[in-house]
Design goal:
Blueprint lengths: L3 H22 L33 E4 L2 E3 L1 H17 L4 E4 L11 E9 L1 H5 L6 E8 L2 E9 L4 E6 L3 E4 L2 E2 L12 E5 L8 H11 L5 E3 L4 H9 L5 E7 L1 H13 L3 E3 L11 E6 L1 H11 L3
Parallel strand pairs: 3-4, 10-11, 10-12
Antiparallel strand pairs: 1-2, 4-5, 5-6, 6-7, 7-8, 8-9, 12-14, 13-14
Helix pairs in contact: 1-2, 5-6
């Protein structure tokens, strides 16, 4: 298994395995409450949702940072398949081995991006798997667990949602742009800086969204649903697959100074070329 396409397919199978496990273990995403209905409609005619499961055990890794047995088991499932099918590669994951290495073939894994959303039954969380070879991103997938949508990209060969090629949006007017963001909820010392940025950016756009999964936010930029995105502190496993998706969809991903995004902890600014440049201008000096 040497080709980048083969390795993309391996990442997709690993993500699917983890996604299937997460769906089998997830908490309820809500259900209809009450028995009244309008005339001629029975409660049983309403769509059904899954019943509420017993709450999961939450373990705190730090301020506002949670992990569950679901994260760890999903990462183990991913790791076992990747190492079995790609011997000699290594896996860097958020939960089991967070020390990133840059030499050789390295899988960069977030088994459940959006754990807090998952814990609350808010349906915005993902599995993110990227492959880097000697520090260069080669392939990546982001699985939207709830919608069962798989995004994939291979360096130099494009990005896709299923069999549909992805392209970033062509919106160039900030007043028409819809942006994604992430609050510095773990690094609260960054909050004032972020709020200054937010106050400048929000009034000049058609809206800013914060959904709680950077991997899916970046996938939405690649798919043209969001025109840009910024966040001040993200880890490599949060963004590695999303960086490649956006690049292969014709977008740009950098730090706040405009340098190409690297596989290190730090800020990320992404978007189609026009909105990305506008965002950099807005963020400059903050």
């Amino acid at each position: 298994m040497n080709s980048s396409i083969d390795l993309l397919h391996l990442a997709a199978r690993a993500a699917d395995r983890a996604g299937h496990y997460i769906r089998s273990a997830e908490m309820s995403v809500g259900r209809y409450v009450g028995t009244s209905a309008s005339e001629g409609t029975k409660p049983t005619d309403l769509p059904t949702c899954r019943p509420t499961d017993p709450p999961l055990t939450w373990i705190s890794k730090g301020h506002h940072d949670w992990v569950t047995e679901i994260d760890r088991t999903a990462e183990s499932l991913i790791r076992n398949l990747l190492l079995e099918e790609a011997p000699g590669s290594r896996v860097t994951g958020e939960e089991l081995s967070p020390d990133l290495v840059h030499e050789g073939m390295v899988w960069i894994v977030d088994p459940l991006d959006g754990t807090t959303n998952f814990l609350h039954g808010y349906p915005q969380y993902a599995v993110s798997i990227a492959l880097a070879v000697d520090g260069e991103l080669e392939a990546g997938v982001v699985l939207d667990v709830n919608r069962e949508c798989l995004y994939g990209a291979v360096r130099g060969k494009g990005a896709w949602l299923g069999n549909t090629a992805l392209r970033v949006s062509d919106i160039s007017d900030p007043a028409r742009a819809l942006l994604g963001t992430g609050y510095p909820f773990k690094q609260l010392e960054e909050l004032d800086r972020y709020l200054e940025q937010f106050r400048r950016i929000l009034p000049a756009t058609s809206g800013v969204r914060r959904a709680g999964s950077a991997a899916l936010d970046l996938a939405d930029v690649a798919a043209g649903r969001l025109d840009g995105f910024w966040e001040l502190q993200l880890a490599p496993w949060d963004v590695a697959a999303g960086i490649l998706l956006i690049r292969e969809a014709g977008g740009l991903v950098t730090d706040t100074a405009g340098a190409p995004a690297s596989l290190r902890q730090g800020p990320v600014v992404a978007g189609n070329p026009a909105i990305h440049q506008w965002l950099l201008t807005q963020l400059r000096g903050t």
